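Q: Given only this backbone (286 positions), what sequence would you predict?
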């Protein structure tokens, strides 16, 4: 049956996503929310729009919003994405400092201190996906770091703790850059094309920094770097509200006592991260 000429297909969509549209500060938040609900650029054509961004602009314009949304400058949390993470860099220095200090003062406690500090740093910036905190993923990460330290020695745990600070900076830079690219994109595919190279660059920078941290701690690079990369990707995915299933599967795979297990887990999670973090919905404000 053909749609009636006088029909208003956007009105039904506006009613369906009323809460999202009314609390949005700008059309970008609506576009990210629509994508999270499975609406693509192709779907937007059914609503007489060329892409999701154009559809989001109409929804934003037609949505009644309260005083808080109409004056975004007064809304809390309007600082650029990544700014709080940059300001919290001092906290990211603590795991490495604690682990390095324990290795110098009390070598027996270096491993446990490094494990605890590394896992605490992984938990701290997490964002719950679907309103639930990812307890299982963090427990698996704790088990992985503890098991790796038991197998390869406290130096490995210290190296992972030292990698927390550069990981914090790389994650903050990626979040800020992705949000900026979201603002300059006019289609979901356009944003994905802009976000993927940014993610690869962040991973490359962190990998080099993790190698330096491993060398400083005196542990083997082929063991430490894949584990550090796996934890970094876990941090990124959890921070951006990604689904926990692939993260948990990668962490379980890395627990297998085979040298190539951590490399395979990190490679698999990197592929998932490229797909998940190139979505606009991964960079909407929580």
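A: Predicted residues:
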């Amino acid at each position: 049956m053909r749609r009636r000429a006088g029909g208003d297909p956007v009105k039904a969509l506006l009613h369906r996503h009323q809460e999202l549209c009314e609390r949005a500060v700008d059309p970008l938040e609506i576009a990210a929310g629509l994508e999270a609900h499975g609406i693509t650029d192709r779907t937007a054509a059914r609503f007489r729009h060329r892409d999701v961004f154009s559809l989001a602009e109409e929804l934003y314009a037609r949505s009644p919003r309260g005083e808080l949304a109409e004056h975004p400058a007064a809304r809390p949390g309007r600082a650029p994405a990544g700014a709080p993470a940059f300001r919290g860099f001092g906290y990211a220095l603590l795991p490495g400092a604690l682990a390095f200090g324990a290795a110098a003062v009390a070598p027996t406690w270096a491993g446990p201190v490094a494990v605890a500090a590394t896992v605490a740093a992984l938990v701290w910036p997490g964002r719950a996906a679907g309103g639930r905190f990812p307890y299982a993923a963090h427990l698996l990460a704790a088990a992985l770091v503890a098991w790796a330290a038991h197998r390869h020695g406290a130096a490995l745990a210290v190296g992972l703790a030292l990698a927390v600070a550069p990981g914090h900076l790389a994650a903050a830079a990626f979040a800020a850059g992705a949000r900026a690219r979201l603002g300059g994109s006019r289609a979901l595919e356009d944003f994905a094309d802009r976000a993927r190279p940014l993610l690869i660059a962040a991973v490359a920078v962190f990998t080099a920094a993790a190698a330096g941290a491993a060398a400083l701690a005196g542990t083997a690079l082929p063991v430490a770097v894949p584990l550090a990369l796996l934890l970094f990707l876990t941090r990124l995915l959890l921070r951006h509200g990604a689904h926990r299933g692939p993260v948990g599967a990668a962490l379980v795979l890395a627990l297998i006592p085979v040298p190539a297990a951590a490399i395979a887990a990190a490679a698999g999670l990197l592929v998932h991260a490229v797909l998940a973090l190139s979505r606009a919905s991964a960079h909407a404000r929580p």
